[in-house]
Structure formats: C-alpha cells, structure tokens
Model the fold of this input.
Amino acid sequence: MGLMTREQYIESLDDGRQVWVSGRKVDRVATDAALAPMVEAVAQIYDMQTRPEFADLLTFERPDGIRGSRFYKIPETPEDLMLRRKMTSAILGEVSPTMDRFGDETVTPLFVMCDRADICDSFDERYARNAARWLDRLQRENLFMTSGNTDPKGDRSLQPYQQHDPDLYLRVVEEREDGIVISGAKFETGAPYAHVALVKPTVGNWIEENADYAVAAIVPLNAPGVRMHCRMPLTANGAGNANTYDHPLSGRFDELDTLMVFDHVFVPWDDVLFSRQPKMAAMMRAEFSRWAAQGYLVRCLSKAELLVGAALLVAEQSGTVKIPPVRSKIAQLMMHKQAIEAFVIASEASCQPSPGGYTMPEQAIQNAGRVFCSQSYHHMVQILREVVGGQPVMLPDEAMLTGAETRGDIEKFFAGAGFDARTRIRAMHLARELTGSSYAGRTQAYQLFAETPVFAQENALFASYDREGALEKARLWAGLAEEPTAAAEPALAAGR
Ligand SMILES: Cc1cc2nc3c(=O)[nH]c(=O)nc-3n(C[C@H](O)[C@H](O)[C@H](O)COP(=O)(O)OP(=O)(O)OC[C@H]3O[C@@H](n4cnc5c(N)ncnc54)[C@H](O)[C@@H]3O)c2cc1C
Done:
C-alpha cells in the first residue's frame, strides 16, 4: 500500500470504531455534523501531499525509492529540520491557521525511542525495534496518529497505584505470551478521526510502585474495547451545521477533545513500546518534547500571526488604526509574534546533534519558547480584546444581516470607517472567535495545558539550560573563580 489518498483516508474511518459526541452514538464519522469539518481538514492534508507545490515538502524519497510521509522522518540534518518546519507551516497556511492535531508532532516520541535505542534495548530489545517498525509503516502508509498522555487522574494528590479505582491511569492488566492487556483512559484531541493512538505515560513520579502504569503502546482506534467520548461541540449543532460567516473558526476547526476509554484492550507485543517500565517512563517523559516542541512553536507562531492580523483588520475597519495608543497595543502583539518567530528560527539555526546522532532543535531555546508561548497566549488575546473593543461580543449574526425587518438597522449601525456592515461584522466575528467565543476559551486552555502544564515545561528548561556556563560566569564576576569552593562546616550548614 502506498501513501494514503484523501478518498482512502475518508473510507478508512468506516472501520467499526465506537464514537459518541455529547452522548450521541456516531453512525459515520466522515459525515457526522460534529466531525465532518475536521475530517475534511485532515483530508486536505492528504491532498496536499499529491499537489506539485507541496509534494516535496510533505513527502520525501526513502532510500528504498518509495515516497514516504515527511511527518514520520526523523530529522537527520539541519535541512531536514528546516523542511519539517516548512511542512508544518505550509499545512497551517493552507488548511487552517489554528489547527493543532494532525500528526506531525504526535509521532515524535517514536523519534526519541529510535534515538535512544541503546537505552531502550537495555530494558527490552523489542521496544526500539517496534518504534522503528512503526515509523517505517507510518512513512509508507501515512496513517494519522494522535497522542494520548493525559489520564483522568482522579485524586491528583495520590500516586496512580494509590487511586481508589485502578483504571484512573492507563495500566497493564496482564502481560501475556502474545501481548499485553490494557485498561483505563486517556484524553486525546482528534482521536475520532485518526487511525491509531500512541498512548504513553503522563507527567508524574515514575516510582516502582507505579510499574503497572508505566506503559506505552500504539493502538488502532477501532480495536475491540476502545470507546471514544467526544466533548460537546463548540457550536450548537456541531461544526458541520454552523454558519461559517458567524463562526469562521469554530464552524470549521472544532477539534473534538476526546476521552478515550480502553476496556481490556489487547495489544500485540509488536505494538508495545514499553510495558511495566517506570524507569523508561521517566526517561521518555523527560525527552518526549525534543522534536514535538518544534511543531508546537510553529503552531503558536501561526496563531500569533492571526491575532496580529485580526487586530489590524478590525482597527482598520473601525478607524482606530490611526490612533497612536491603539497602534502601541498592536505593536505589543507584534512583539509577541516576533518573539515566537525568533524562538522558532533560533532553535533551528542553533540545532544540535541528538544523543543518537540525529538533528534536533537547540533544546534550551526551544524549551524557553515553549514556556513563553504557553504563558503568553492569553496575554496576546487580552491585547487583541483591548484593540477590538466590546463590539465583537455584541455582534449580529448573518440572520440579522439578511432578515427583512432587521437588515436596514444592522447595515446602518454596524458600518465602519469606509467599510460596510457585512464586511466589518465578518472581521469582528473572527476577532470574537479569538477573544470571546467558546472557541477562544478552548484555544486558551489548549495553549496553557496541551503541551504539558507549564511547571513541567519549566523543569525541562531548567534541565536543558547551560547552568554550568552560567555558574562559571557568576563565579568569575563574584571573584570566586580563583578560589576553591569550600563546603560549609556542618555546624554552620545546620544553622547553628
Ligand atoms: C484543549 C485541550 C486539549 C488537550 N489535548 C490533549 C491531547 O491530545 N492529549 C493529551 O494527552 N492531553 C491533552 N490535553 C490534556 C493536557 O495535557 C492536560 O490538561 C494537562 O496535562 C494538565 O492536566 P489536567 O488538565 O488534568 O490538570 P490537573 O492535573 O488537574 O492540574 C490542575 C492544575 O494543577 C497544577 N498541578 C497539578 N499537579 C501539579 C504539580 N505536581 N506541581 C505543580 N502544579 C501542579 C497544574 O499545572 C494545573 O495548573 C488537552 C488539554 C486541553 C485543555
């Protein structure tokens, strides 16, 4: 089988998967009102790989002469890293500026396993071999793989093994000759219209007692025992029924976050990445973002560009763009966007070899970029809100613009600085989707949490920062460089 086409992708979703949206059983994912627009968005990406202007970005020629998907190619050179960034940017430019889940970053834990094959082998030689085999298959078939890290977690003050219900974290119920049986649940964005899920341990304290929970595997989304419960759509009757004049983003790109339940799901050993290995869970958690964060930062850049553009558009149509304090606010937004771009470019330009000899973005810059992006998105939204004023939350919908009895008033009172009401309301709806809609709220939560919570990102930054270099400089200028560092007397150290 070659690279999957748009038609094959759409057909492939008719595979017996069990999906509910707001408690309603989904008959056919590809045509369901809540899911169809995202299926279409992903289908467009499959299309892009056959379009001449994008084919070389989205695919590459493998050593065996077969064309493979670049999503699943570990960057071997700085050029690979650059092409990866351009591939993600091209998709965000062509399909959606705000779409998060399409597979290029969710695969990257497999890169880490191939990169760390020696360490994986010290636990079990099947693990890295399985990761490499899956990468090979994903390259050839271009399946869409999502990623589930986050468990329901129950009482956060307790360890996984201490929970009153053992399924609150995904766990290994049984290891058998032919594979493992897993039970529990994970949260996954985009799972209902993906092919497989890469499930892996969440942020945590990977002590021996949690061994049953230290499991990572690739699971087909139609596997017996998998049930997917999607949250309620962001628009009343699902994106497919939404008016895209009123809902330019939520009517197209409602990426349904899903509780994915695993009820005694059997996983053959070939698809197990590790089982009952807390040390591997700890190691992989520390390194999982090595390549994933590049995709996250490129997405943040795309969202920041849209925020700047929306500010300019509304300010132009309202005439406020001529007012210096409003320009200052827009300049603040531009500063954030430029800073994100600098993180993207700098981490790529200063790329470094990975432990296994591949090429990865410079980790401290990239980790700083992650913290910056996760923390600054809501601040950027606040600036946009100040620029666009209160009207975006008081907007008429298209029905009011076209209604025989309302049209006259709406056209008269919503016209702007040389722009008719229809044009201006359209721009304001975009601003509303970014600042004052349920889409805006979900996006802000996504930015804050979906790339792991900020405290975990800060830990990664601390770990990857050149602390020794910083200490050396401080010691030098404190006049401590020449002097041996004396340990404090025990009595003094104890504060006596
Ligand atoms: C829109 C959206 C999409 C998502 N998509 C995915 C996905 O596709 N795949 C996936 O795996 N996950 C996904 N997530 C889940 C995301 O990874 C989690 O929200 C995140 O890990 C935080 O977990 P939680 O929401 O359970 O918060 P909680 O664990 O309940 O934490 C609540 C707060 O307490 C803080 N906190 C908790 N423990 C500690 C601690 N030990 N030290 C300091 N502070 C702590 C947290 O930082 C947070 O601020 C998504 C989340 C959102 C909002």
The chain is about 45% helix and 15% strand. Residues 124 and 274 are 8 Å apart (CA to CA).
